[in-house]
Amino acid sequence: MPDTLYYDGQCPLCNREMAKLGQLCDAELQLKDIHNLAEEDGLPDRETLLRTLHLKTASGELLTGIDANVMAWQHTRLGPLWRWLRWPLIRPLADSIYRFWAERCYRRLYPD
User: Which pLDDT does position 41 carry in this prediction?
Assistant: First the structure.
């Protein structure tokens, strides 16, 4: 069973990244648009999935945000270039920037 990355197919930036990732990734990564998703065990509700990137590993672990993104890119030859985002001194800043961006993007795409 491959890792599965769940992304927002209505987000232009997400679509560009998933197109590139889809070209480069190995067979051990599946990309699934949340808008075409049937309910799956072990996943949060649709709104939670839309608010941040989620990756379910082959072992069933659920990663979110930059952890999900970095793990997904490990399925490509470019994977090592993403690992610096998880370095201890960089991680808190990278996580904060991602959370800010993800919330802003969600509000823009799905206003109340």
Answer: 72
